[in-house]
Amino acid sequence: PWGFWLLCVASAPARGDSGGKARSCAEVRQLYGAKGFSLSGVPQAEISGEHLRICPQGYTCCTSEMEENFANKSQSEFEAMMKEAGRSVQATLTAQHRSFDSYFQDLLNKSEKALYDAFPSIYGELYTQNVKVFKDLYSELRRYYRSSNINLEEALNEFWTRLLERLFKLLNPQYHITDEYLDCMVKHAEQHKPFGEVPRELKVKATRAFIAARSYAQGFLVGSDVVRKVSQVSLSHECTRAIMKLMYCPHCRGMSSVRPCNNYCLNVVKGCLANQADLNTEWKYLMDSLIGVADRIDGPYNVDTVIGTIHVRIAEAISNLQENKDSITSKVFQGCGNPKISTKGSSSEDKKRRGKVALEAKSSAQALEMLVLDAKGNLTALKTYWITLPSSLCSKKVMASSASDDKCWNGMTKGSYLPQVMGDGLANQINNPEVEVDITKPDMTIRQQIMQLKIMTNRLGNANIGNDVDFQDTSDDMSGSGSGDSCPDDVCGKRLSKSPSTRQPETNAIPKQSGHGVNGASSRSLPSASLLLLLPVAGIAAQHLWR
């Protein structure tokens, strides 16, 4: 078949359809001028093409300078096409992030405002003297959501500890309660459950909801950033020549009206974007993982209810403490002894005010449902972006002819294009007839972005099952590694300011297991963190060896 194709090319008329008559170069001159180049030295009619280095060396309307200028122009135009296509994807992902972020922040803000509006009238000085405790809680929740290195479980435990200390003193003003006495009280807090089951329930639900929300928001930003960086990768020298031959050589041959053959265009673009196509697997995993977490956010993790009712749960906890004050105080005295009587005397009745919890939280579940539905539609559409990019560019930008067209530009002349279309990815370009691709030299920038996709997908997989991968337990049993309900009672019940957790914050930590699909599967493993740090060094060393 190859010999037959070459024979067809060799037997094609050297001067296109006009046979031996030299054709006018008016169309090329017009195009060349429109591209911003000077028409000085541009032939009026076809000349011999022995000087050409990229286009076929038949009769031509292009000089060596024109060929070089067209080559540079084709490179810049193709790279612009890539960036434009990337910007469209970036815009989609950024818009999804902005919508969810706005919704989530608004949910948290409304809960905080409802607390500030209602608590003064319900609890009096029990609230007004402890405003900072509540403000600090919401501040920590926001910091966690914005990806600060905060252990969310510890932040919640610390809030309940501080609140208990403050309220216990206010509810028992007739006693002189020292810090040492408070330490003792806190040690027994888990046993006495002064706030009822609210702290435990809120910790489990809020932790899962925040982990999912944070990972979900991060996933959109990581995806957008990967597209941005990959879109900036420059074309190789071989690719530039192939793009020039595809886009401008027909003009030099006096065939300006002849469009490139579709399969010819596909082979050129697949060869040029071979490394980009290798993003496909991890990119699909990221899209699937985002869809999986989206289902959790609008489903089992119930973000709308959990985050939107934090103030209501806190009110329930305080009311439980007030209603059981005498019983709890008696138990504390039994365990820690009777504190000394205070010389300051009793406080006003305002401090002892018992609140009647009648707080309501307006549901925005419908808004969340619409956000998730829109996101899932966009994510599904973006799954095959990297492997459909060549056909998209060929049909919409290069304006290739139909696949069955036998009067298209095939790289040599007007006719049909016989070679088969190559597969996707670097390994499949070993026999690409249009672009010389060294499959042993992957682009390091793109390999690094593949690793970023793996890391983010891993985070989402863990978020899908309630695990926070930004904190890893230093022990071997992974207990307390982030799951909302895996913290042992004898650890979570302690006063955290006195006995900090052994877990250390770890940026971009990689868990021992990962997950891709919507079910939070965790069968794929990732390299260790130290390997990630060595990746750029390995890339430089490899590039040196390739030279």
UniProtKB/TrEMBL annotation:
Cell surface proteoglycan. GO terms for molecular function: fibroblast growth factor binding. Residues 1-16 form the signal peptide. Residues 498-511 have a biased composition (Polar residues). One of its GO terms (cellular component) is plasma membrane. Residues 471-522 are annotated as: Disordered. The lineage of its organism: Eukaryota, Metazoa, Chordata, Craniata, Vertebrata. Residues 477-490 have a biased composition (Low complexity). It is a lipid-anchor; GPI-anchor. Keywords: Cell membrane, Disulfide bond, Glycoprotein, GPI-anchor, Heparan sulfate, Lipoprotein, Membrane, Proteoglycan, Secreted, Signal. One of its GO terms (biological process) is cell migration. This is Glypican-1. It is found in: Cell membrane; Secreted, Extracellular space. Belongs to the glypican family. PANTHER family: GLYPICAN, GLYPICAN-1. The gene is Gpc1. Its main location: membrane. It comes from the Eukaryota. Pfam families: Glypican (PF01153). It comes from Vireo altiloquus (Black-whiskered vireo).
